[in-house]
Amino acid sequence: MKKFAKIIAALMAAVCILSSTGCATAPQSMSETVKIEKIEQSGLKQLCADLNKDKLIPEEATVMQSDVIGAEGGYRFAIQLDGGNALLEIYEFNSDKLSDTASKIISDIKESGKFNMLGISDVYAELSDNDKYMMIYNDPKSTGDNPDKAHKERRDKITKIFDKAK
């Protein structure tokens, strides 16, 4: 029984660590998961399908509270590569009806590559070429003075597909 309790405690600790990793980067998770084929926003669904087709993201994502930033939808993907972990969050905005919050976030990202939200400063993000999508990519192994080659290549491939999303 003690062994079982230790296993449960270890699993709970892992869940806490993994779930808190993305909290400092973007809107909170709704703790609901969805397969790419069930994503409601057609443009976001196609973008995620394109990334998944190239095996850059998994088939399942966590639904994010995208309304906090004025987005139509948003999803977080946990990516594992060579013993490292990365988090990718993708959000879709409707440019025909942007809220003040969404307009401010988009403007901040265009100006500085980051935005502030819910008391969290300096959330680094990128916009697609058409400004319809926002990406937050968190993989310490893909950046810095000595990035891991495989992690950097994955990030570059994701960015290339993301930038051209319709």
Helices and strands, with pairings:
Blueprint: H1 2-21, E1 29-35, H2 42-53, E2 60-64, E3 73-81, E4 84-92, H3 100-112, E5 114-117, E6 120-124, E7 126-127, E8 133-138, H4 149-163
Antiparallel strand pairs: 1-2, 2-3, 3-4, 4-8, 5-6, 7-8
Question: Quick gist of this model?
Answer:
By secondary structure, this protein is an alpha+beta fold. The strands form two sheets. It has a six-stranded antiparallel sheet, sandwiched between helices. A two-stranded antiparallel sheet has the order 5-6. It has helices at residues 2-21, 42-53, 100-112, 149-163, and strands at residues 29-35, 60-64, 73-81, 84-92, 114-117, 120-124, 126-127, 133-138.
Can you tell me about this structure?
The structure is a single chain. By secondary structure, this protein is of the alpha+beta class. It has one domain (2-163). The protein is 36% helix and 28% strand. It contains four helices and eight strands. The chain has helices at residues 2-21, 42-53, 100-112, 149-163, and strands at residues 29-35, 60-64, 73-81, 84-92, 114-117, 120-124, 126-127, 133-138. A six-stranded antiparallel β-sheet has the order 1-2-3-4-8-7, sandwiched between helices. Mean pLDDT is 84; it is low at 2-26.
